[in-house]
Amino acid sequence: MTSKQRSSHEKSAAEAVDRTTTRAMLKLVRAAQPISRAELARRLGCNRSTITGATRPLLDAGVLTEGASLSPRTVGRPPIGLRLRTEGTVLVGVNIGVRQTQVGMARVDGSILQEEVFDTPGDAERELAVIKEAIGRLHARFAHDRIEAIGVSVPGPVDVERRTLLYAPHLGWQNVSIAETLQPSAATVIVENDATAAAMFEASRRLKDDRSGVWRDFILVRAGTGIGIGVVRDGEIYRGAGASGNLAGEFGHMTIVAGGKLCVCGNRGCWERYASATSAVMLYLGDRAPTSGAPPIRYAELVRRAEAGELRAQAALRQTGEYLGIGIANVISGLGIDRVVVSGRIVLGWQFIREPLQMAVQRALAGRLVEPVIEAGLVTGSGLGGALEVAVDHFLTEAAERTRVVDR
Fold it and tell me: Taking the alpha carbons of 28, 29, 34, 35 in that order, is the dihedral positive or negative?
């Protein structure tokens, strides 16, 4: 094949790869880099020539770079590994938690360069001002790099455009225009629900070694102060459709106890009032639990007491695990996805929570019809990691669009 024929063949192959496939390829490169074209083709179900044609514009645009040989071969040329190019580009992640806020700067490959942590102010306007100051300080240390995107994870639902926090019940914030306030001149700000962001982080984390694709569909249950759900279908986040898309995944406020405990959202008997880290502490305290304000102990202390053999602490965690399992069984039945990852502070007590959780799922119809796989995820890391993943996802989507070869 002549060089002219090869160029024409590669262009035709690139034209056959749509934006979605190109984006999937970039996500896989980021997760498994360095990775060969042959391995990309195998895992994406494409011809190698298609991958070769699709990677050329990405290499020309500086999105991808070729590295050293992956492994020596006795016959033929050793495969060359592809990587995302990280020079000159940084991403910012902001995780707004009920108690603390994290602001971090990272490369496209996920390596964190700098991070700041501070207590979340009670006032939304003050919070955004402090965040802007933190971003400015971090960027000053890498002023020669361009901020491509800022991902912000928030403890509540967001609007369909992913620019505004609609409601954060544990903070009492409503209709906070985060993107408009933080928007610098050269970067896009994307606001995402924290559980959805954590699901994006978990999907990326599992993509590296998930060669069989069994984790392309899963549910992420993030439990800490409250409970949030992220849903991944066919490797992509599911957000719902139309104007109601911002409510997809808000299972933490489904009722599991009719007329039960009052929730901060105004409803009674919400799942998060019985199965979150905070609810475990309140259950442990019983009549000693305060009617307002922060409880006298933190969840980590409750777990330490359980590990030291205190029966009351162990019982509180087991009961919390059962309630967590009841809700998970409902979510599995409703969504038809039987793989679940539980992350957040609740995982600190996993050794006491896991068995009653599994038993509650097995008692439900979902547990009798299928064999759900329920695993513990990360206690921490998915907070800031999730926010950064939001920024990465936007960057890769834009890169796929910019470098897409259009048939003329």
Answer: positive
Q: How many CA atoms lie within 13 A of 177 on its CB side?
A: 3
What pTM was computed for the model? 0.87
pLDDT in tens, 26-77: 999 998 888 988 889 988 888 888 888 888 889 988 899 987 666 655 455 6
Which of 85, 119, 141 represents a domain boundary (last residue)? Answer: 85
| 343, β-bridge pairs | 222
Across the range 370-394, mean pLDDT stands at 91
| CA 90/CA 114 separation, integer angstroms | 11
Closest CA to 338 of 222, 232, 236, 203: 232
pLDDT of residue 5: 46
Mean pLDDT of 350-378: 94
Q: Are 165 and 178 in contact (CB under 8 A)?
A: yes
Do residues 356 and 243 share a domain?
yes
Helices 19-32 and 382-402: crossing angle in degrees, nearest 10, is 140
Q: What is the mean pLDDT of the chain?
A: 87
Count Cβ atoms below 10 Å from residue 14 Cβ, excluding itself: 24
Summarize pLDDT for 225-271 with one digit per residue, the tens.
999 999 999 888 988 665 544 556 679 999 999 999 999 889 999 99
Angle at 338 (CA atoms; ends 336, 343), nearest 5 degrees: 115
Range of the domain at 182: 89-199+384-396
Of residues 287 and 191, the one with the higher pLDDT is: 191
Contact 103, 119 (CB under 8 A): no
Same domain flag for 267 and 155: no
* pLDDT for position 242: 52
In a domain, 405, yes or no: no
Pair (314, 363) in one structural domain:
yes
Instruction: Domain count for the chain, please give it.
Output: 3
Name which of 158, 160, 176, 161 is nearest 121 in CA terms: 176
Phi/psi at 136 (5° precision): -60, -40
The last residue of one of the domains, among 37, 60, 85, is 85
405's CB contacts (< 8 A; 6+ apart) are 11, 14, 15, 17, 53, 57
Nearest-5° Cα angle at 214, 318 to 217: 70
What single-letter DSSP state applies at residue 83? E
Rounded CA-CA distance 369/355 in Å is 19
* DSSP 8-state symbol, 263: P
